Structures are given as structure tokens and as C-alpha cells.
Give the backbone structure.
Amino acid sequence: MSIESPHQPVTGGPSLPQERRLVTEIPGPRSREMFARKQAAVPPGIGTTLPVFVTHAGGGVVVDADGNSLIDFGSGIAVTTVGNAAPRVVERVQKQVADFTHTCFMVTPYESYVEVCEKLNRLTPGDHDKRSFLVNSGAEAVENAVKVARHATGRQAVVVFDHGYHGRTLLTMTLTAKNMPYKHRFGPYAPEVYRMPMAYPFRWPTGPENCAEEAAAQAIDAITKQIGAENVAAIVIEPIQGEGGFIEPAKGFLPRLLEFAKANGIVFIADEVQTGFARTGHLFACEDEGIVPDIICTAKGIAGGLPLAAVTGRAELLDAVHVGGLGGTYGGNPLACEAALAVLDTIEADNLVERARRIGDIMLPRLRSMAERFDVIGDVRGRGAMIAIELVTPGTKEPNAAVTGEVAKRCHAEGLVVLTAGTYGNVLRFLPPLAISDELLEEGLSILEKALSSV
Ligand code: PLZ
């Protein structure tokens, strides 16, 4: 006769009970204890959004050291799109870790790296001949895309946009728009980076209907007159800006920039680090307007939480670089490649592109109805499972960072992981894992609604 334990060991992934459960205040005593250790051991430059220390995560929840189960609207910043500890990822990585953990692909290669690249070449926008190579982080992918563009064109200038975010390395920090916290006192910055206006519909001075055309005209005029189009190696842009506040460029802006790039031999680089892999209701956000970039940078959602990023682009651009000109010790680590293959299988098998759309269809109407009742909400925007609200001083468009921070704090206290964003710190962004249930999604929105009505 077997005796059933009342406390079966619960691991992560979808086997975790899919419920919000608060058993202590947030953060609880164990998390507070670990946070004190963190503060003594880790510099404050490494910030903390919500100081609960995680022991398990999966589906739509994150479980902390005190036994609280929080609803996840963050996915570790758009990384665990297929869910945390997703079954196929766990299975493939566990097998790989026992087979071999590293050889360095540049020393003695392995098949999974090639397979990830083959799949990226096939799945990314455009049916032209493509190549891919793998690196460790989003910043590294963007930095390498610029290296390739400069090498292939023999030009130096790089054009980026207001509110853009591309990373924290010297070059990508330079490409990033926001001073505090990303750039402040970390200069001098890399040379030959030029910033143009972004087609930000909510804040465009003459209104959203003129935004795409005017912003593109201003950018093109400045590129032509101030840099010289023939000196520009690359235009680097996020098809929906992430850290900048989930800014969806006005329709028509991206196609106009792409057309200008094409006409002038400029490499069009799409930074899909945050928007990629089913997040926006397309496999890649560029697909929304039929944009076919010359190079696309991916990371985050590509490998379900294992560190991996990729540069995919036109064969003639990537093949231009000499042997040994690209690489890195860990790029395309075998564990991360197995995880990426599992992620791509999961997106297809579980129809996650459609799931992201469905999440948007649940979130957007509820947020729009909140916007009618709470005049602190100035804008509701985003696509699929990449949705945000921008908070303002009622009756104006004045950014309201104070209320944004307060709403986030109240959501956290109620067991909902939400993130803020935006140049003005006044955007609440929602990036639920696509493995979240409709029930948890609705419950999370109700917590948000309560937080908004209480401020
Ligand atoms: N490009 C569009 O969103 C990373 C940054 C969090 P890495 N965004 C989260 C933080 O505060 O550091 C990001 C992105 C876009 C590039 C990056 C950089 O990706 O993997 O963080 O290097």
C-alpha cells in the first residue's frame, strides 16, 4: 500500500499550480533576508524591480522563497515567451547537458547550432538567401549587426531613433536614447551614431494622423543634409520600441524608412530582441507591415531563458566578413541551441502566434475600458502579448511617472509582476508568457484595475 504524501514535491514549469497565492506580505521574510544579502554582495547598479526571490516558475506564475505564487506579466522581460521551464526546453537541455556542455563552435562544431541557423534563415522575414550566426545577448547581436553592416558597406555612420534601446555595451549604449540610467557618466560614447525623431503617434506634435509621414520626412531630411546618405552604413530600429515604452511607430513610417535605405545602399537592421518569437502576434513584428529587413537581431524569446541571440541577414552582407572576423567563446552554446530548437517546436506545436493574438484580444478591450474610466491612462497600445498603458496627468499629456510607480507597487503587493518602461518612466508594460491561462490573465487585469482605482 502506498502512502500519498500531502506535500508532493512541486517542480517548475506547467506542473506548478496555476494560481495566485499570497501567504506572506510581498516581499516575505525569506525574500527580505536574501535581499539584505544581495545588497551587501551585489552593487546597487544592478537594480531590482520586485524583490521576491524566486524558487520555481512556470505557466503564468512565479513562486517565491516564502511560498507566494505571483502572476507573471513580465516573462523576465519578454524572455520566457513559451513559459518558464517549458517541457520541451527542459527535456532537450537535460539531455544535452549530460552529452556535452561546450566545445566552442569555432573550435569543433556541432549540429544544433547549424540547425538553429537553418531555421532562423527560413523563418525570418524574406525568402532571399540568408545566413545566421549566434551570440550571447541582445546587445551582442546588435553590435555584431553594425559590425557586419560597416564591413559590407565600407561606411561608418549609424542612424538610430528617439526612445530607442539597444543594450548596455559601449556601442549599444550609444545607440540607446535614454541617459538615465543607461548612459549617465559612462561616456565618452562611440562615434558616428546619429539620432532621428521617432514616429510616436501619442506624442506627435501635429497629431497621430500626420505622424508617419512627417517623422519619416524629418529623418530622411536630417540623414541627407547632416550625415549624407552615402555615409550611412545602417539604420537600426525596433519595429515596436521596448524599453522606450512599447511605442508602435505610426503605420507607414517603417516602410518609408526601408524604401529610403534600399534606395541609398543603407543596411536596414531590425532589432527584434524584444518583439521576436511570437510575442506580438506574428513570429516577428516586422511582418505586421511586411517589412523585410536586411539584417534582423533576435535574442530573449529565442531560447526560453537560456542565453542566446542571433544575427540573421542577407547572405551577401554576412558573407562579406573575413574568416575569424565574427564569433565569441560561448556564442551558440549547445545547451542554448537545444533550448532554441525546443522553443521553435513549441511555438509551432502549441500555435503560440495565435495564442499571442488571443492574449491581445483579451487585454486590449479591458485596458481600453479602463482608459475610459481612469483619465490617468493617456494611451493604450501594443500588439499580441506586448501591451502597454501610458499614464499622464489627467486632462493633459504630461507624463505621470509618480502614479506609474505607485500602480506598479500596488500590483506587486497584490502578487502581480508588472514592469515599467518609457523615456519618461510613465508606461506600464505587460509581457505575459504565452503559456499563461486566460483565468490568470483576467485576474492580473483585475488586480491592475483595482490598483488604478486606488491611486
Ligand atoms: N534590444 C530591443 O529590448 C534588452 C534590457 C533590460 P540584452 N531589453 C531589456 C536592462 O535594463 O538591461 C534589449 C532590447 C532590445 C537590445 C536589448 C539588449 O539585450 O540581452 O539585455 O543584451
